[in-house]
Amino acid sequence: MTKEELKNIKLFLMDMDGTVYIGPQKIPGAFEALETLRQNGRRVCFLTNNSSRSQDQYVEHIRKYDFEASEDEVYTSSLATCLYVNKHYPKAKVFALATPRVREEMRRQGLNVMEDCPTDKADYPDVVIVAFDTSLTYDRLYAACRYINAGAVYVATHPDNFCPALECNMPDMGGFIAIIEKTLDRLPDVIVGKPYAPMAEAVAQKFGLKPQEIAMVGDRLYTDVRFGVDNGFAGILVMTGETTPAMLETSPIKPTLVLDTFADILKLLDLE
């Protein structure tokens, strides 16, 4: 990526876990670099696959790192999923395997999300959304399986295998998808989040920019970087999270740019 191409970037889509923080710890210089970018006319949006929290919860969470982010600067795979379902399955009855706050958010986005787990087949949902449900109960998991098995459209918010954490990686959507596959021999009909096109289409609709004016920044090759390069954005890899040098060397996914840490972006943009 040339310096001129980098200077043409108007929007930096930022992953969170492993990119600007890990658990309660800020990654040195990352938030400061974001503030410098904002002061110099670039737009910033935290774009996360993690669908365990609602948009307003993420705003609150980011503020814990002494960084003021507006709701317009946070976008999640669950919001992109709402956009997808509203577009393709308007007025559908939806069962969401999601936390209570995310289910509330889905209703605010216009989805007809049922609260209970109906047992009468006449009341079964048309669509099952599987999100990163950290409030998961066996009854709700089994209900989702029943509805998918009965023919409901099966939509997953994202494909991440785990969520980075300090002591031990947390099981994420890859595990949920695997459970349903082992149970029903069924994969999602669509996965919305990074690296897939529905998330890119949602971003394009939200910001109205050309692909070459957007960069995706993250620590994962198979979601963050692939999301960028597959959808015409710059894919910027930071080496502060999941990806190791050995993984980068052997991966078929080639980043547009590799940074040791996101703070290094300022030197390349002559903003130090």
Q: Would you mind describing this structure in some detail?
A:
By secondary structure, this protein is of the alpha/beta class. The protein folds into 2 domains: about 5-50 and about 195-270, HAD superfamily/HAD-like (Rossmann fold), CATH 3.40.50; about 80-190, Rossmann fold. The chain is about 35% helix and about 20% strand. The protein has 11 helices and 15 strands. The chain has helices at about 5, 30-40, 55-65, 75-90, 100-110, 140-150, 175-185, 195-205, 220-230, 245-250, 265-270; strands spanning about 10-15, 20, 25, 45-50, 75, 95, 110-115, 125-130, 155, 160-165, 170, 190, 215-220, 235-240, 255-260. It has a 6-stranded parallel beta sheet with strand order 5-4-1-13-14-15. It has a 5-stranded parallel beta sheet with strand order 7-6-8-9-12, with helices on both faces. A two-stranded antiparallel ribbon has the order 2-3. Strand 2 (about 20) and strand 3 form a beta hairpin. Helix 4 (about 75-90) crosses helix 8.
Mean pLDDT: 94
Could you say which structural class the secondary elements and strand pairing correspond to? alpha/beta
> How many strand units?
15
Strand content: 15-25%
Number of helices: 11
CATH class of the largest domain: Alpha Beta
Q: Provide the succession of SSEs.
A: HEEEHEHEHEHEEHEEEHEHEHEHEH
Give the biggest sheet: 6 strands, parallel
In terms of topology, how is this protein built?
Blueprint: H1 3-7, E1 11-14, E2 21-22, E3 25-26, H2 30-39, E4 43-48, H3 55-63, E5 74-76, H4 77-88, E6 93-97, H5 100-108, E7 112-113, E8 127-130, H6 138-149, E9 153-156, E10 162-163, E11 170-171, H7 173-184, E12 190-191, H8 197-207, E13 214-218, H9 221-230, E14 234-238, H10 245-250, E15 257-259, H11 265-268
Parallel strand pairs: 1-4, 1-13, 4-5, 6-7, 6-8, 8-9, 9-12, 13-14, 14-15
Antiparallel strand pairs: 2-3, 10-11
